[in-house]
Amino acid sequence: MIQFNNLSFGYSPKKLLYKNLTLEIQSGSIYGLLGKNGAGKSTLLKNMVGTLFPVEGSVMVNGMVPKTRKPSFLQTIYYIAEDVYVPALTIKQYKNLFAPFYPLFDSDNFYRYLTELEVSVDGKLNKLSFGQQKKFVIAFALACNTRVLLMDEPTNGLDIPSKSQFRKLIASVMNEDRIIFISTHQIRDLENMIDNVIIVDDGKLLLHASVADIADKVCFKTVSEIPAGVKVLYSEKMLRGTAVVMENIDGDDSGLNLEQLFNGVTENPAMAKQIFSTN
Ligand SMILES: Nc1ncnc2c1ncn2[C@@H]1O[C@H](COP(=O)(O)OP(=O)(O)OP(=O)(O)O)[C@@H](O)[C@H]1O
């Protein structure tokens, strides 16, 4: 479990980005972290891995304090940054150098993931294309078998087949002890994969809800007229009617449209709060 307890964080002491953030992230779940540019997504991930740390309050990852960066903590968490960096080493050299830091590293699976993601194992890593480097890092991260896996824009730069392969791999490595936490703008890449959604804006937590809770509280419809007497979180004129995200008063099961949900929550946070705070 990851617990943010009244966490405040700012890059400058005079201007806090997060103020009193309290949030609990459960094991056994895949989280999608969404937010506009500059909303504070990467900052949140860096607080979890301990490269940034709170000004006030705390963050605990499976009972450990990230900022101490103890080996016993670092071997349980893997963070894929948005911009990957790979040294001028072969895949084998890289594995021999870095895998020993992760006691649960699975070499057979590592090569299997590379094959499934179609990353060539010959030559130096820095000669691979950006997308191939990204896939190499994903394969390595998955093979580390850490209890916490944080990924910042993992599908950025991946081609279409690789994105679906990525989703399959994530589903295959998930278990009840693990937390997989993905920050992204590529909303479509997350649909059908995540079971919890977190939306932040300007350092504020606008939404933390399970996909089941979202389906319970709102429905996604295309209507000819915007319905009256019901909370409409978001509407958008389409070719055939108006797409709406509205309060789910009839218990409809209309699936999830993360993009529309995101637009509704960020444009209308007060209404989102009202809808999602009801039981
Ligand atoms: N090293 C830094 N020093 C000062 N301010 C920073 C630093 N890194 C980020 N910020 C600021 O903190 C805020 C949050 O940045 P962050 O990178 O967490 O956003 P993000 O949601 O990940 O954005 P994006 O989607 O564009 O990657 C932004 O206003 C950004 O300018």
UniProtKB/TrEMBL annotation:
Recorded hits in PANTHER family, A to Z, give: ABC TRANSPORTER ATP-BINDING PROTEIN ALBC-RELATED
Q: Which domain of life is it from?
A: Bacteria
Q: Which InterPro entries match?
A: AAA+_ATPase (IPR003593), ABC_transporter-like_ATP-bd (IPR003439), ABC_Transporter_VariousFunc (IPR051782), P-loop_NTPase (IPR027417)
- MF terms in GO: ATP binding; ATP hydrolysis activity
- State the protein's name: ABC transporter ATP-binding protein
Q: Which Pfam families match?
A: ABC_tran (PF00005)
- Mind telling me which SUPFAM superfamilies this protein's record contains? P-loop containing nucleoside triphosphate hydrolases
- What organism is the protein native to? Mucilaginibacter gilvus
Q: Which UniProt keywords apply?
A: ATP-binding, Nucleotide-binding, Transport
Which part of the chain is the ABC transporter domain? 2-227
Do the record's keywords include Metal-binding?
A: no
